[in-house]
Amino acid sequence: MTASITFRPDEEARRALDELVEDGSSVSAAIRDALIAAADRRRRERLRAEVAELAADPEDRAELARIREDMDAIRAW
After folding, report:
1. What is d(CA 52, CA 47) in angstroms, rounded to the nearest whole number?
2. By C-alpha distance, which of 60, 57, 54 is closest to 68?
3. Helix (H, G, I), strand (E, B) or coil at 75
4. Of 6, 39, 43, 46, which shows the fewest CB atoms inside 10 Å?
5. Which residues contact 34 (CB under 8 A, 6 or more apart)?
6. CB-based contacts of 25, cutoff 8 Å, min separation 6
7. Rounded to whole angstroms, how far apart are CA atoms 46 and 38?
């Protein structure tokens, strides 16, 4: 999908964009990279939250303990 997007940066966003293009990157490339990085951070944050929720879930922890016991019982010597 090729689309043009227009945005109006505020002063903080303008400074950030200026910093991102200091190395000669185009504005388009800097914005694309920033969007991809932001989406990646958001995915990682959601995953961390999910892991923390599971780690705090007593039922999940009990199930994990049962699985470990079962695996220990069938482990090859």
Report:
1. 9
2. 60
3. coil
4. 6
5. 16, 20
6. 33
7. 12
In the block, tokens 């303008």 appear at 14
pLDDT in tens, 33-76: 999 999 999 999 999 999 999 889 999 999 999 999 989 888 76
The answer to whether residues 33 and 20 touch, using CB atoms and an 8 Å cutoff, is: yes
Nearest to 30 by CA among 43, 15, 50: 15
Stated pTM of the model: 0.69
End-to-end CA distance of the chain: 55
Q: What does the block give as tokens for 17?
A: 């964009």
